[in-house]
């Protein structure tokens, strides 16, 4: 008799049979989010549930550097312990893939476990639009925002997430980063600019072309920290991070500095609440399966790669 194995704890199943890829979403929004767990049972074709009589095998096939796997070979229970330091050091969304095989006398069935582990601009930031600078919190759906790669683009969606003082205290990796006025040249930015640590800044420098084959690259703000012009900012009342989404990934002007629009990759989507994700999926149904995210507007560097571009950021002293 044939059978499938099924995950019993509520993961979302997809794939060619509808039940062969099991997806878990986790966002690193608090210090206590470290473990993803589940339980597999054998489901004989016809009816009934049971454990695979010859047990289960689990193997991490991608992303093993981002955590440790534990499992029970007889019950199908597993836990993946996320290495938060490794995740945050990577500077980007990550996906861990685990294969799970159940065996009985009739054969073996193998499924995949996909763990999507998420990380924008802050309130008051001025966004360049066709009608002039507008605070990000006042932008409306349909407003035309100036972009670096062509005509102004209409805003398709705006999201906001408040990070409380308690969350910032528990997880310093969420603390905002402040870029001093004129850090990248006159008017770039025109005023001090506050962004999330993962928000990517466009850097244009010959070193990028030398090391990465692209003159312009996108670098997470945390990869540009220099304790002078780009520093972690205090936020005693918490911080509101805004997400501005277009039909494609764009470079927009925030306080005159070219930075990225929201990129709805798997990792970023996990940072959103259920209602917000549902709203976004209604507008962009192609994102539901995690395969419809647009290409990034420029090559994206990881934080450690940005060390090669440190001379691109003038390290001048700024007032505290």
From TrEMBL:
Domain Hedgehog/Intein (Hint) stretches: 119-266
Gene3D superfamilies cross-referenced by the UniProt entry: Hedgehog/Intein (Hint) domain
InterPro entries cross-referenced by the UniProt entry: Hedgehog/Intein_dom, Hint_dom_sf
Signal peptide: none
Pfam families referenced in this protein's UniProt entry, alphabetically: Hint_2
Name of this chain's protein: Hedgehog/Intein (Hint) domain-containing protein
